[in-house]
Design goal:
The chain has helices at residues 32-58, 95-101, 103-106, 124-130, 149-161, 165-177, 186-198, 202-214, 218-230, 234-246, 250-261, 266-277, 283-299, 303-316, and strands spanning 19-20, 28-29, 112-114, 121-123. The relative contact order is 0.11. It is 56% helix and 3% strand. It has one domain: Serine Threonine Protein Phosphatase 5, Tetratricopeptide repeat (Alpha Horseshoe), CATH 1.25.40.10. The termini are far apart.
Length: 317
């Protein structure tokens, strides 16, 4: 039997020429006029289905982490995820002890070194293994390092002109913070970060989320955090969980924290333990989340990364 498809407003059959509502894909129209006329009837169902589609994308399993191109170990969003400490348990080593262990010196430290010449990212463990510094030649494209800030920015601009999302994000960050030899220009920074986000940079989405959140625009902050989380940024997902918890949507908050903790995000694991102590999370959920958290952290650790972290702690004290 052939299914007859018709315009939801006028009822005319137009076959393949009908255009579906882009928000919900539930109904089709023969022209924009019919779509506008039908909106008052359709809007409730449309918004409900659009929200369901968004949630389906938001809560599905995120993509795998980016690997270091030398050692092929997953790259953490935060350096602290790589610290070798005993596995966390409810009774022996609470997860918040992981965060406290190096909070003052390492909470904001970065595991990754990105090469502007080719856009490749290498972890601190491999940097330590090579016994080199930022002035080493690029292990991937062999570009000579030790350039001036002007030369480095020029190298980065070449990748920006090639529409490299990560390079555009990096340049936007330089302008936002007034670093890399560039004068601070927040307007230009926002333009670059928005461009990088449109090209799929989860780091740009995350940075925009932070900026909008700091400026009080929670709607835009949540939008960018969601985009970053769907691309696999576990800290953005942790922040989404906090957004939901602040509005008493604990069910959604816990779902976000479970996913982020499974990627080795220690603040999410801490939040789950707090929710457990408050009776919002059951023991089975905590046990499974702790197992996933410990496994994820273990995958990101190596002797070389431990040595790199030890060196950082020594220099930063």
């Amino acid at each position: 039997m052939t299914t007859i498809i018709c315009c939801a407003e006028c009822g005319k059959e137009r076959g393949v020429s009908l255009k579906a509502c882009k928000s919900c894909m539930l109904v089709k129209y023969c022209n924009p006029s019919c779509q506008r006329n039908h909106w008052s009837t359709h809007k409730t169902a449309c918004k409900q289905r659009a929200a369901e589609i968004r949630d389906e994308a938001l809560f599905k399993d995120p993509p795998a982490k980016e690997d270091c191109f030398i050692c092929f170990l997953p790259m953490p969003a935060k350096l602290i995820s790589c610290i070798s400490l005993p596995p966390a348990t409810i009774s022996s080593v609470p997860v918040y002890d992981f965060a406290i262990a190096a909070h003052e010196t390492l909470q904001k430290a970065n595991m990754a070194l990105c090469y502007e010449c080719c856009g490749k990212t290498m972890c601190g463990g491999c940097i330590h293994s090579f016994g080199t510094s930022r002035n080493m030649n690029c292990p991937y494209c062999k570009s000579v390092r030790g350039k001036t800030e002007v030369e480095t920015i020029g190298e980065l601009m070449m990748r920006v002109e090639a529409n490299d999302a990560d390079a555009i994000y990096a340049l936007g960050s330089f302008y936002y913070h007034g670093s890399g030899g560039l004068l601070q220009d927040r307007e230009k920074a926002m333009e670059l970060l928005t461009r990088a986000a449109a090209l799929g940079s989860c780091q740009a989405h995350f940075q925009l989320g932070i900026i909008y959140n700091g400026g009080g625009n929670l709607k835009k902050a949540k939008f960018h955090y969601e985009a970053a989380a769907m691309a696999g940024h576990e800290v953005a997902r942790c922040n989404l969980g906090c957004f939901e918890a602040e509005t008493d949507n604990m069910g959604r908050a816990v779902k976000h924290w479970i996913t982020a903790a499974s990627a080795g995000e220690q603040n999410s694991m801490h939040n789950l333990l707090v929710a457990f102590n408050q009776g919002s999370v059951n023991r089975n959920t905590i046990d499974s989340s702790l197992t996933a958290y410990n496994n994820s952290c273990a995958e990101m650790r190596s002797e070389a990364r431990d040595a790199y972290i030890l060196g950082l702690r020594t220099r930063l004290r």
